[in-house]
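At this stage, I wrote out one protein, both as residues and as discrete backbone shape codes, and that material follows here.
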Amino acid sequence: MLKTNEKRLVQFSLECKPGHPFAGNRLNVDHLGKPFQLPGIGGITLNIQAGDSVYGWVGDHIEPGVSCKWGDKRNENPNQSFQILACAGNEAVVTSGKAKGARGVVLGHHGGSEHLIIDFDKKTKEKLSYEDTIRLVAVGMGLEITTHPEIRIVNLAPSLLKKMGIRAERKTGKLIVPVAAKIPSECMGSGIGATNTSIGDYDIMTSDWKTVIENKMDKMRFGDFVALMDQDNRFGRAHRKGAVTIGIVIHSDCRNSGHGPGVTTLLSCGNGEIEPVIDPAANIADVLKIGNCREKK
């Protein structure tokens, strides 16, 4: 069992509301020069959830589940502190309206829209309104694995960390982390260079489908844990040989140049202290039995 500082972490009670879907008032142009106008970020997304494929939807930057925020100023408090403090795996509960009492789980956060994405079952989403409030206990900021202080953890609830199947290899001391895919560094696009990995996400570029197939990225799902190879997210998002970052996939494929499925950072090392191993079931839906795994119970 991994030793952490969980007992000393601060817990905050936070509130949010579902954010309306955003539809731009102009055409976009994809990486092949083709104009498009499609559903995009935000909203209570009724038919897409954790565990579903990130590909094939008639949409762009689709956020599964319920896209949440607090207040109208996306980049200012209280929404900014809400985004930073809430972590993947935190539990959420609806506190008003027809869905009052329903429980969900935080998947991660999406930069640009500054939305926190929460997974609820379909019946709950059908009852939710955009005026309903959702409360969550935010805990995870400052989480450390005390035996591996060189590995930085962000956006990750200790309860989820315990269930990801992570273990320390006895001989090398490396953390063995199950992931659904290993992403080559050259595929990382929009969001790279950001100096704060405790908020937002960055995108896996999918414009070169041959590279997608070669690296077995064509099976990616919402909620997948993925390894971003040679990507150092300890102090910003940067390329570094030997670095490894573990993230969670939080939005769909995209058509714009430099974009693709979005990833929220969870763990990162600079010198190979993390060793990712492929496991097709390395997904928050499979681990916590949420998303489309509710239907399989």
Q: What stands out?
A: The domain at 152-291 is CATH 2.102.30.10 (tm1086 (SG structure) fold). The first helix runs from residue 79 to 85.
